[in-house]
Design brief:
The chain has 262 residues and is mostly helical. The chain is built from 10 helices and no strands. Helix 4 runs antiparallel to helix 6. The protein is globular, with a radius of gyration of 25 Å. The N and C termini lie far apart (53 Å). The mean pLDDT is 85.
Length: 262
């Protein structure tokens, strides 16, 4: 009669981590004076209703719609150009960040990427507005700086995790290191990199709309201007333009991702 194997040793690390996480959540709610009930009082509902009623109907004058369309194109251009610059910078930093030039350059570049992505776009825009002045240039460079840190890290991880056998085979057959990289490793990771790029472009559309609040141009700057003057109907038109732009870019990105995965 065969005996059942001994049960594996119980690993308590997962339970301890879950307990610590739960304790952190409970401590967060206990230390913050959240007054969630105030959101559902009659006075709060009445105030919210009055505020939302001020947005209707949206401004539909042809001159203002033309101005909103120009700002929409400006926001789209900021996000697209910022993402393209981030892809170029992120890919250049990802190659040493993947350890292809040794441990020391890898650690240095990874630290640089951490700094770039740790600073939010709004902070980058505030810094660059001092240097470059108001307008879309500062917003574009702010998006490029932050997104380069994000994409550089993602690209570096993709290169590190790529199967090394195809590149090694080319190297054994006499290919140079650079040629082996471009013909073996890069094609393997390119679909993943393109997916990362499209996802970050979607995020940058939203970020570009927000950056205008600090004076970086586009729809965000229009929204801040009209809200500060309590021109709610015009602000509603700008918000609708933001929603439409995000929806169009999301649909386009989804279609491109599907075409890449077929």
């Amino acid at each position: 009669m065969s005996h059942m194997p001994a049960p594996p040793a119980r690993n308590w690390s997962g339970w301890l981590f879950a307990a610590a996480l739960m304790a952190l959540v409970i401590a967060s709610f206990a230390t913050l004076s959240l007054k969630l009930g105030d959101l559902f009082t009659v006075e709060a509902m009445h105030s919210i209703g009055e505020f939302l009623a001020g947005f209707a109907p949206p401004e539909m004058a042809s001159g203002f719609l033309r101005k909103t369309g120009i700002a929409t194109m400006e926001t789209l251009a900021m996000s697209a150009l910022g993402t393209l610059l981030a892809v170029a910078g992120g890919l250049l930093l990802a190659i040493p960040g993947a350890g292809r030039f040794g441990r020391a350059p890898r650690a240095l570049v990874r630290g640089m990427l951490s700094v770039l992505r740790s600073i939010p776009e709004l902070v980058w825009a505030s810094i660059l507005l001092v240097a470059a002045g108001l307008g879309p240039f500062a917003g574009t460079m702010a998006l490029a700086a932050h997104t380069a840190g994000v994409l550089g890290r993602l690209f570096a991880d993709a290169l590190e995790n790529a199967p090394p056998l195809p590149e090694q085979s080319l190297r054994l057959n006499g290919a140079t290191p650079m040629a082996a990289f471009f013909y073996a490793t890069l094609p393997q990771t390119l679909p993943q990199m393109l997916s990362y790029t499209l996802y970050r472009w979607e995020n940058n559309i939203r970020a570009a709309a927000v950056l205008g609040v600090v004076g970086a141009g586009g729809l965000g700057q229009m929204l801040k201007y009209h809200l500060s003057l309590f021109q709610m109907e015009r602000a509603a038109t700008v918000i609708l333009a933001m929603l439409l732009l995000v929806a169009v870019v999301d649909a386009l990105s989804f279609a491109l991702r599907r075409s890449l995965t077929r």
